[in-house]
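## tool: complex_structure
## caller: assistant
## args:
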Amino acid sequence: MTRRIAIYPGSFDPVTMGHIDIMKRALGIVDQLIVAVAKSKNKNPLFECDTRVTLIQQAFQDDRMKVVSFDGLLVRFVREQGAHIVIRGLRAVSDFEHEFKMAVANGKLDKSVETLFLMASESHQFTSSQIVREIASLGGTVEEFVPQSVVKAFEDMGHSSS
Ligand code: PNS
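## result:
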């Protein structure tokens, strides 16, 4: 039987409880999940790529999941991994247009790539890395939104919460 390998790509700057929720849901559907952390240099990420990988590994582990970094075209990476499925999480309606464009672009670049959207749970509908970064930078508490590894990483950066 063919093993279903899926890629869950993202910037994960940093990983949130919403991302982890999607990882758990994806593991309920596929045989192997590869969480692919994009270097995203053009997005000027707050955390180094290696740190973003480590923070995910510290937050959640599963025998059927690995966390790696990638650079360049996502569809090329998907092919290199012998996968055909790309997992993306969908939150509020505002995500849809951007996600739709990416899925269509990836499908045009490689017809064998199928994007599978998983809905974030209700409690994570409005959790985003961007909002978490902003709250932390202003000294707010992010514990509700991110795993403990990320809370500690923010503290190490001097973003202690009130
Ligand atoms: O978490 P993000 O920032 O929404 O993730 C976006 C990501 C990394 C999945 C997307 O930017 C991506 O696939 N980048 C790789 C470059 C690429 O393949 N671009 C063309 C497809 S839109």
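## assistant note: The chain has six helices and five strands. The mean pLDDT is 95. Handing back to user.
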